[in-house]
Amino acid sequence: HAKPLAARSGTDTHCPYCALQxxxxxxxxxxxxEAGGPPGLEVAERPDFPVNxxxxxxxxxxxxxxxAPHARLTRPLVRRSSSGELEPAEWEEALDLVxxxxxxxxxxxxxxxxxxxxxxxxxxxxxxxxxxxxRVVLGTSQIDYNGRFCxxxxxxxxxxxxxxxxxxxxxxxxxxRTDCVVLVxxxxxxxxxxxxxxxxxxxxxxxxxxxxxxxxTRTAEHADLHLAPLPGTDLALALGLLHLVVxxxxxxxxxxxxxTTGWPEARSAAMAHWPELVERVTGVSVPELRRAAKLxxxxxxxxxxxxxxxxxxxxxxxTVGAWINLCLATGRxxxxxxxxxxxxxxxxxxxxREHGQKADQLPGYRRLDDPAxxxxxxxxxxxxxxxxxxxxxxxxxxxxxxxGDVRTLLLAGSNPVVSAPHAAHVEQRLRSLDxxxxxxxxxxxxxxxxxxxxxxTQWAEETGTTTNLEGRVLLRRKAVxxxxxxxxxxxxxxxLAARLGWEKGFPAGPEEVFDELRRASxxxxxxxxxxxxxxxxxxxxxxWPCPEQTxxxxxxxxxxxxxxxxxxxxxxxxxxxxxxPVMHRPADEEPDEGYPLRLxxxxxxxxxxxxxxxxxxxxxxxxxxxxxxELHPSLxxxxxxxxxDPLTVVSRRxxxxxxxxxxxxxxxxxxxxxxxxxxxxxxxxxTNPALDPVSRMPEFKVxxxxxxxxxxx
Length: 713
Ligand code: SF4
What we know:
By secondary structure, this protein is of the alpha/beta class. The protein contains 22 helices and 32 strands.
């Protein structure tokens, strides 16, 4: 194993969980770790890292516990007969079985019968290697990843408007220095608590925070104005605000003329959304709409930040597009301390979408259907561009095809049995595969269905890079040796490539992979060619794009990186941002007699995503032991339900049972469930897989349900 890179005192690294990628130091301490991690390894604050300035949430503080041997896999597991149990095995047997299954399916049914499903928590190196493995070793187009469920609508809308998507086109610290923030569908006080300090700073400076969320979340409690639209109506809300900004003369015509195209059409679309109509659609009153429009348009600097609320909809791209239009009309994007940004969710949600595990993209955020991109990347990979497959299916479509024309799947760093929409169907699809191979740290609900499980290393046991929600490329350093019996994902891919007859070598050293990634990304939108491990270590992160600069005389000079995008021009061919006209449309499923309520889903502070890691941490489980159904007292009264009574939530796809949590902080026509658990309380048994036509994002955030008092079991 590589030696840990030198650090000041202990090992400076980053949290394994969310997209904030908080800086932390892992230290050896006498007497063991109270959290139950590997003996003597403890999490310490790292106040000099600007994103979190030493603050960590409870997930980060307890993150070493997942390293403990009792919490994770330490040996490969194989299912030696279709009716048998998973049993411990040697690596050689496990790798031989996986390689044989991949080869058999590829040879008998063609390369597209093999699927690869990755994750937004994988490092840049792993995401890159997985994409390359799929396209050159397997030759399949069928690769996508769970990041599609995260921020794909914002990515699509950002690319459409600005020519480039980078979650935040400015450092997070700008949030505390602007004058007005509209936070749409983000409960960051629970999902990434250290980010809250930037909003606190904003308000302490006299700035304004507007929160848009159907629930009065912990984040909404900090707001100057909380707008609570019906789930699935954020698009109408943004259009109504733009209508009012136009009507009240708040449009920045000089900016529109100088820096944008498409305003007349976008303006017409917004003017069709009268405030009274928007009030009827969203449930947000006209006076509240007027106040929000005035606060936003009259602020000196202002920004809109979106998260999963508006994005996880079957019209997510247009919804984010409507918020972008509001920003453009008021002259925000590309100006200091202003603009539009997306708060990415997963730890490497940003980098994970830039380097080739997405169905339609090559490393460097290049389009797979761009001949020049194919030529460049094929040259780095040493293959014929014509041999590279074309774009494949999006995540849910790929999962839906399992057991049909996709017969064998390699699943890495994802737990779709819990995290995918219409999860019972996805589980059934996984069960119908000819062969399922899973690379994971823990025996997740999805890994339990596998024919072979390959136990892999995790954050503190390996070195690699992630790219946080700001586009800041970071180095997660190795701090501790992994348990015997565990290998890195990169080593697994190297072994499988060799067994599948790939003779050109498949590097397994993270720095070697990163150097190849740099070359593959050179010249692309997400250009990493000027970034190196050494530079990241010296500068504590580098913002992309950061091209390698070569002078006429061949001399090289360091590019400073790009903390702020679009200051001079947008990344479109004419340098102008594009307004895209969008119109309100209803959710895919509207309430009716059989399903009269709306369900929305989300996260809680002490669990993370599918819970595969955090449900194994004692303190987190104690704080958030299971699912619940949040509902308004008036609805609880109609049902005859008291606090803690078991409720059954039923949608057209399934049912989930969880105790009632009664609060006035939710609309009476809406219920909320967190999605971190499997079993009876699995929220994603209910959710709707209707897809956004552009981003292919499922409609996690709204579906029609009915709620009943659960009968005796
Ligand atoms: Fe980790 Fe996110 Fe918590 Fe920071 S906010 S400690 S990155 S989970």
